[in-house]
Write a structure and sequence with these properties.
CATH superfamily of the largest domain in chain C: Glycogen Phosphorylase B
Chains: A alpha/beta (344), B alpha/beta (432), C alpha/beta (345)
Number of domains of chain C: 2
Low-confidence stretches of chain A: none
Order of helices and strands of chain C: EHEHEEHHEHEEHEHEHEHEEHHH
Mean pLDDT of chain A: 96
Strand content of chain C: 15-25%
Helix content of chain C: 25-40%
Strand order of the largest sheet of chain A: 2-1-3-4-5-6
Structural class of chain A: alpha/beta
Number of helices of chain C: 12
Distance between the termini of chain A: 12 Å
Helix content of chain A: 25-40%
Strand order of the largest sheet of chain C: 2-1-3-4-5-6
Largest sheet of chain A: 6 strands, parallel
Strand content of chain A: 15-25%
Oligomer: heterotrimer
Low-confidence stretches of chain C: none
Number of helices of chain A: 11
Distance between the termini of chain C: 12 Å
CATH topology of the largest domain in chain C: Rossmann fold
Number of strands of chain A: 12
Mean pLDDT of chain C: 94
Number of domains of chain A: 2
Amino acid sequence: MKIALCSTFVPFLFGGARNIVDWLQTMLEQEGHHVERIYLPENDSPDLLFQQMAAFRWIDLSAADRVICFRPQSHLIQHPHKILWFIHHVRVFYDLYDSPYRGFPDDAKHRGIRDALVAADNVALREAKHVFTNSRVVSARLSKYNQVDSEVLYPPVFQAERFHCRGHSDEIVYVCRLEHHKRQHLLIEALALTTTPVRVRLCGSSAGPHYPNELNELITRLKLQQRVSMENRWVTEEEKVDYLADCLAAAYLPLDEDSYGYPSVEASHASKAILTTTDSGGVLELVSDGINGYVADPTPAALAAALDKLYRERATTIAMGARARARLDELNISWSHVLERLLA
Amino acid sequence: MKIVMFTPAVQVSAIGRMACLLTAALQAAGHTISIVRAETEQMLHETTHDFGAELVAWTEVARVRGLLAAADLVVHQIGDNYQLHQGCLEWLNEAPGIICLHDYFVGHLFCGWAQHRREEACTILEKWYGPNAAASFFQHPDSESFIEETHRSAPMTEWICAMGSAVITHSSWGIARVMDACPGPVRVVALPYSAPAAPVRHAASRDDMLRVLTVGHVNPNKRVASVIRAIGGSETLRAMTVYRLVGAIAPAVVVALSTLARNSQVNLLISDQVEAPTLIRALDEADVVICLRLPSLEAASASAIEALLYGKPVIVTDTNFYSEIPDDCVIKINPEDEVGALQRALAQLHADPVLRATLGERGQRWAQATFSADKYAAQLVAVGADAARARPVQQAMNALARTLGSWGGSSDMLGGAHTLGPLALFNNSNPD
Amino acid sequence: MKVLIVNNMAPFVWGGAEELAVNLEKNIIAAGHQAEVLRLPFQWEPAARIPSQMLMVRAMELINVDHVVALKFPAYLIRHPKKTLWLLHQYRQAYDLFDSAHTNLPFGAEGEQLRNVIRNADNESLRESRHVFTNSEVTRQRLVKYNGFDAEVLLPPVNDPALFAGGQMGDYIFAGGRINNMKRQALLVEAMRHAGPNTRLLIAGPPDSPGDAAELQAAVERADLGDRVRLDLRFLPRETYAEYVRGAAAVAYLPFDEDSLGYVTMEAALAGKALITTSDSGGILGLVKQHETGWVVEPDAKALADAMSAVFAQPRKTADYGQAARALWLHLGINWPATVERLLR
């Protein structure tokens, strides 16, 4: 089949929203399909939305048998067999409209833009033969704001067979970009309150030096230099596989994210338990407290208790890791499932 | 919401009165209103209605801009009178907003505006009405023939409606042209009106005389001559009727009508323009209000509504806005048999006081329910939201058209199936 | 610097321009910058769609980009304060191909309006770019003629020069490139009938259509040349193509009136191979100099046969021509670092 994968991007910014498209392309090509990948630029600025939306309506991909669209405004592309793997709305006009993240005034003009955007999305979404999302959180939003039903299709990680379990050290590993909303600082604050010798490893790049500096200062202030390994850089895939293979458990505690995040899936493939918090959002679709990890309150004290428990109750921790692996099958997080659903 | 309303504010303006009512209703609903006076500079010293809101003249550019910058909603009250609505026209380009269209025919407004813009005016005439429209439009010798010739072929409704982001009009008879021209939502909402004093139920007359009243600027389209002829054609009516005219009247017309009345042996009382208290008393005293229009140019008739709110039996021409009034609330005259039908109606009303009372009551109840300022205010706000929703798409289309235009592409090109077709999804999101 | 290369895309079609864009990206990164390729889908059929495609590109909003290098219409209509054009293609169907009636633009008022719109948009983009380069002298002349605009020629380098080193003088003449009527591989087959007995020919490349392949195969069969002509008609993996070039005695490339120097010619020269072409091959003559770097003959089977025979009759001369071709190519200084530097000025 000739399949076009369409999404929007900001040039030179890479990460989750691109991985899902790039990896899907590889998997489809492995199955023998012809894949064309289309990334188009997009700017969320309210006054520029509708001209861009018109532009997307003019894109002709009739050469493809099927078109799969990801990030807005790619869902506006017309095609007789349009499939959406919808990863998020233009959130400032949807769930973040009534939040400090809106970024523009709540006045008649912007309410008008919001109403027009929702109305246009309602039509565009309904043009699709099938609507998939990457999490229950996003599906709930599609239902609430657009009255559109969707099927959750969890994004798998690439070449998951690389991940394995080699043992369990005394280290909780958090492999993720060092950003404030990922809350590595919360984990450090928690470590200061632990009573066991459990350790923490943080690895990831960051947009700027500000947050990593903050973390370093925090580690120094709390005198945790001996118990925290911090690598402020993009770790290689091999390094990540190794860290996950050897760690006691993995941590992933971002603030209210839509999707469960690749780190939690990677940890699950490595059969490691996951430490997260009650307000992390999509991760909670993967992690259940006491089953395949711990879901603590987002306070240093609660996280400290969980960290100590992971260390002290080793057998439980190992068992939870095994269940983490099984949970992936329960949730059908696999490329074969993805291809089966997208090509149905 | 912060609302800026462009409107005539002087007391002689009935539209100004309506705007006042509307302002009060909007304020009661929690909005803040600023009024920009639209009357021509020479009238700015005259007394205004009491809006209970900030008043700014359209000529105070900086202040107006300041208000517009903070405004959530802009409204323009538009009627067929250049002296009263000049300010709206001066600001419509910079501040398009909801147009409250009081008159479908705005030929006089256009002429006033066109005075110093003849070339531009001719382009506009050609655009809407074809290459020959401009030639004849400015050639009419008098007001009568002007209205007669243009109200059907070149009413200028499109010209004004194309400038608004939305249009509210007060009846549906002339709406086709509005919808053709307005880029945004269009809605019909009953004109808000209230009687200036507590409406008085018709009290039994002190004598047997039938007091008949017609209010408003005495133009030929108000059919005063026909009323005089109708009264004059009946012995009873001649004896028992006093026909009073309250409203501005040209001296030549005074002479003509007085002569006709004398020759027809009709009691005609001409009061010219009066102050509000006098008008109220006249309405109070009247047994019947005659509100004829031929041709009918206004979207809705403030004087007819006012008479109904006063609980008076009203006689109207069976056309346009008046046809939309329920049959049991007014007496409708077939314009083909104007004098005859009038005579029969007046005779009936004179003979039957119960009929007068019943008609008045029913008309009053219907008018009170329909011409509610609160309802109008709510509809205005809703149309505002609709217009705000339509605006982003309009602006995007305008920007794309400008780009294509800068490359030498015609509007046909933007309207072509391949270009416009895929954009149909934005139509569904426009509440038209 | 963050450099965005902007090109068209016809979905599922990959050709020379796409290769160029990818190699440009690679070499911009090699020069120490960041680079990405933006490919904008372009549908020009029917012609009535073209305005919407132009508006689509013009409405695109770029953020996080320092410099744009755009290659084709309508991709180069994209807005950016630092835009450089490396014009591979205008919409020729509005210009020279319109004049020769090879166009999908309708004749009459509608077509005139479309041509006008395209020309005005082109002129606007030319004016708003900081530099405008074309990929050949022919393209540069068209820009002068139709848009009154004077651009600089920036010839595209060979994409992967290292592949063409270390060859030996072989026993066949190599004819590479796309197979179609304009490239005239059939003429070479015809010429073989008159050529000397130890003349060998290898024609290898992707046929534009099955019909083109069939025609060529039929020509070979008709000529009954046994194993002196070999056909390898398919999209060649790059390594295979390079091998064919490296192992040739000489390279023949005789398209009708080509715009540019021709990649086949450039790569052959880089590999130090003598060149054979015809007098009406257009831009190819930039590298093929009669009796200096190879042979330029009339587009005629007998004349070609003479040249082809000469390759094997005078191997030392052939070798000298090859060296001269390489020297000429290197002298032109067309390499990626220089190209990147000029584009990013």
